[in-house]
């Protein structure tokens, strides 16, 4: 195709396959379904929903360029656009970056036409052009022609006369003359030199927008001076507007107060030793593993109930925060992290509650670095945002942790981009969070909120939002990302760790990875983290004050056994356990004997077993099981009748309602569990027994949900197409375009039906098909499928027999067989069409 393209479709036809692939990759929504030809592709690229999605993904300078085109003449020469972006004085940085911005708009099919006739796609122009209901971020108002539409011819003549222009014979030339005056820098400057100082001050207030103001029925003289010369134009009963041409003169030709061709620098930068950063990140990664493990242990017998509306109650969140010794907001993060990794879920029972999943058992058996890899991969791909827990939803209800409505689809992209910015810095370099947020706002100025489909993010007045405020969704997601990355050990002391760089891959890769690629990257990162994690130890240091000090992370069997025998008193670099009568009794209830406990302590202590601890174990064991509790409702059995008499005489036993059945048996009107707790509260050490008289071992059986999968992320629009799909889509579009635009030989009567499909008789169709087989030529056919849908195709017949034609279909790029009775007609193509 030669000459200047007249439409976007014509320009798209001139693009190479690589150019179409770039368009479809940048705007994947155009692929669903695959367009039938280039005309369909151009039509879909101009729909409001698609244009809004494309505009939302422009960076600040490219968006400013589109906004300048929206207020420029249509079509706009490149030099005019450059003057709008750089002003009359010019700006070298703008001049250097403007070709990139125009090329980006072209690549995304938002701008088309040669450089001397740049055209913004009509839908984009409608979105970005200033109007009273939707002011432009440029702060410009309507043109003189738009603002004066409907003004009386007499008033127009008065205005141009006051402005020093000769009167005209019609309104059109009057408006054109005033527009030319406002665009003439010399003549406009001379006119403003005669303006009162108060009039100039009014223009200065409206200069950068909004361009609208209010006046009274009797404007002051300085306002009347502006109204008389068209520098302010009435825009309603008591409103006026500063026309666009006048504002541009006052601005020195600039469409924006400040063009931003270059992204904000990531500064000030603080350089740290990369090894110290890695060690700090590894320490925090180990803490993260310990916290999640403690959460699973806390829920070993089942977690809290699920609210009717989904999620956990505020009270249960507070309890979990207390158990983890952290704040409620951090507890929400750890809960959502475990949920994203598939370690906790609801059990789905009638009395629904949360619990650990079977996958948690497998996770607990993995090495520390492999466990971290699963947490990191789940966090990186998750769309759930724990930072919004406790905020109100659209109906004013507080959002609950682990509940619905916590998904924010931009989260994975923001997470990866924030970390990629840190990865672009030298190893060990940290920058303030404000610098990262400023860069992200420059890269996606319109993606701060979550607008409805087909709408740009809006300010309170409904106008397209200016570059997002600091508290918009995208900025909050970035802030949470930086904090969560530190908690998870991806960063250390504000800088990205070595394993963190491996986790996110190449900082320049804008394509979202697949789940498999994310998992593989997390595994590679974990291999780098493994040498930095502390090695588990197999011993403790017993002390005379009935405590044990673990000098590092304990091996799992030792930690589990010691957790039953002693209570954790403090955590940190070394964990301190305290032995109490209650904790020793707990170990005895679990089936361990005094001798086994003494042997366990001696085997795992680097110091001798202190005498006070040995005495404590023996004393508790000696009393343990003297009293036997069973179900009558309940009874107490003891060979020492004096001990039973002592219990009966104790006033604290009144609530148990005991009575003697025999010298060695007491009956109680309470359950065995309550009787056990009551006697233990009185200082005794009873043991439960079975109906056969055997001691019952109180072993905690863990509770798990049925098999559960991790929550699926909510996608942020269509997925990125793979190269195979892109190549196939371009082939299909080219083939469909060939079928729609190929030159055809005239079709004899009967004429083609409305819509352009050929119509021939069955005999003519068969004869033409057979001739095409002999001459190896291509044909244009009309075809109706089994569903009654009509289409046109370009085929090269190979064989005609049995009422079917086998042909190579240029439209679908494959060999297909068509029933002849479904072919509505056939026409030969011009010799140079295929």
TrEMBL record:
Transmembrane segments: none annotated. It comes from the Bacteria. Coiled coil: none annotated. InterPro entries: WYL_dom, XPB/Ssl2_N. Residues 448-472, 500-519 are annotated as: Disordered. Residues 540-662 form the Helicase XPB/Ssl2 N-terminal domain. Residues 764-826 form the WYL domain. This is Uncharacterized protein.
């Amino acid at each position: 195709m030669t000459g200047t393209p007249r439409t976007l479709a014509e320009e798209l036809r001139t693009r190479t396959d690589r150019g179409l692939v770039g368009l479809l990759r940048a705007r994947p929504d155009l692929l669903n379904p695959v367009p039938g030809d280039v005309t369909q592709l151009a039509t879909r690229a101009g729909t409001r929903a698609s244009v809004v999605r494309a505009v939302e993904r422009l960076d600040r300078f490219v968006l400013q360029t589109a906004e300048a085109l929206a207020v420029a003449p249509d079509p706009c020469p490149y030099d005019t656009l450059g003057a709008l972006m750089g002003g009359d004085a010019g700006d070298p940085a703008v001049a250097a970056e403007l070709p990139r911005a125009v090329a980006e708009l072209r690549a995304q099919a938002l701008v088309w036409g040669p450089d001397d006739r740049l055209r913004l796609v009509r839908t984009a122009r409608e979105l970005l052009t200033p109007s009273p209901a939707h002011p432009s971020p440029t702060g410009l108002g309507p043109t003189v022609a738009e603002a004066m539409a409907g003004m009386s011819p007499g008033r127009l003549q008065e205005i141009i006369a006051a402005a020093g222009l000769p009167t005209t014979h019609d309104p059109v030339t009057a408006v054109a003359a005033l527009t030319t005056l406002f665009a003439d820098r010399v003549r406009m400057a001379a006119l403003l030199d005669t303006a009162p100082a108060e009039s100039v001050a009014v223009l200065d207030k409206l200069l950068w927008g909004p361009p609208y103001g209010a006046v009274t029925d009797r404007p002051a003289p300085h306002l009347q001076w502006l109204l008389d010369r068209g520098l302010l134009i009435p825009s309603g009963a008591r409103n006026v507007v500063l026309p666009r041409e006048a504002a541009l003169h006052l601005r020195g030709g600039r469409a924006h107060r400040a063009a931003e061709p270059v992204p904000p620098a990531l500064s000030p930068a603080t350089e740290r030793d990369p090894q110290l950063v890695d060690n700090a990140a590894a320490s925090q990664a180990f803490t993260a593993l310990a916290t999640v493990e403690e959460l699973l242990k806390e829920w070993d017998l089942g977690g809290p109930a699920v609210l009717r509306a989904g999620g956990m109650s505020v009270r249960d969140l507070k309890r979990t925060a207390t158990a983890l010794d952290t704040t409620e907001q951090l507890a929400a993060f750890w809960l959502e992290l475990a949920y994203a990794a598939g370690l906790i879920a609801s059990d789905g029972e009638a009395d629904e509650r949360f619990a650990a999943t079977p996958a948690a058992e497998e996770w607990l058996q993995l090495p520390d670095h492999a466990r971290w890899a699963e947490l990191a991969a789940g966090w990186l791909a998750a769309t759930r945002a724990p930072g919004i827990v406790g905020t109100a939803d659209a109906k004013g209800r507080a959002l609950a942790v682990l509940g619905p409505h916590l998904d924010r689809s931009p989260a994975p992209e923001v997470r990866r981009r924030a970390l990629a910015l840190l990865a672009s810095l030298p190893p060990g370099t940290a920058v303030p969070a404000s610098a990262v947020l400023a860069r992200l706002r420059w890269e996606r100025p319109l993606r701060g909120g979550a607008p409805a489909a087909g709408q740009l993010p809006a300010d309170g007045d409904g106008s397209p939002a200016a570059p997002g405020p600091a508290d918009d969704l995208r900025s909050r997601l970035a802030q949470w990302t930086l904090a969560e990355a530190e908690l998870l050990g991806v960063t250390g002391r504000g800088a990205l760790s070595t394993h963190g760089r491996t986790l996110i891959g190449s900082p320049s890769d804008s394509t979202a990875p697949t789940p498999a690629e994310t998992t593989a990257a997390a595994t590679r990162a974990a291999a780098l983290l493994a040498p930095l994690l502390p090695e588990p130890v197999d011993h403790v240091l017993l002390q005379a004050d009935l405590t044990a000090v673990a000098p590092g992370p304990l091996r799992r069997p030792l930690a589990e056994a010691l957790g039953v025998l002693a209570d954790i008193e403090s955590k940190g670099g070394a964990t301190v356990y305290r032995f109490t009568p209650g904790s020793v009794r707990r170990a005895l209830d679990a089936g361990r004997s005094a001798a086994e406990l003494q042997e366990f302590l001696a085997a795992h202590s680097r110091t001798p077993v202190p005498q006070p601890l040995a005495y404590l174990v023996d004393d508790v064991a000696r009393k343990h099981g003297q009293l036997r509790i069973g179900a009558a409702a309940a009874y107490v059995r003891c060979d020492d009748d004096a001990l039973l008499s002592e219990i009966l005489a104790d006033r604290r036993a009144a609530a148990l309602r005991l009575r003697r059945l025999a010298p060695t048996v007491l009956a109680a009107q309470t359950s065995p569990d309550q009787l056990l707790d009551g006697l233990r509260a009185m200082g005794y050490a009873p043991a439960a027994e079975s109906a056969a008289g055997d001691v019952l071992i109180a072993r905690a059986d863990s509770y798990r949900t049925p098999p559960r999968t991790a929550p699926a992320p909510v996608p942020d629009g269509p997925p990125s197409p793979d190269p195979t799909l892109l190549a196939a889509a371009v082939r299909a579009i080219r083939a469909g375009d060939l079928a729609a635009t190929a030159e055809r030989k005239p079709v004899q009567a009967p004429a083609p039906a409305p819509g352009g499909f050929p119509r021939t008789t069955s005999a003519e169709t068969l004869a033409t098909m057979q001739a095409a087989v002999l001459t190896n030529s291509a044909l244009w056919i009309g075809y109706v499928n089994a569903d009654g849908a009509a289409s046109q195709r370009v085929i090269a017949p190979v064989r005609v027999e049995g009422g079917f034609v086998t042909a190579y279909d240029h439209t679908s790029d494959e060999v297909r067989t068509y029933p002849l009775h479904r072919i509505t007609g056939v026409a030969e193509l011009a010799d140079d069409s295929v």
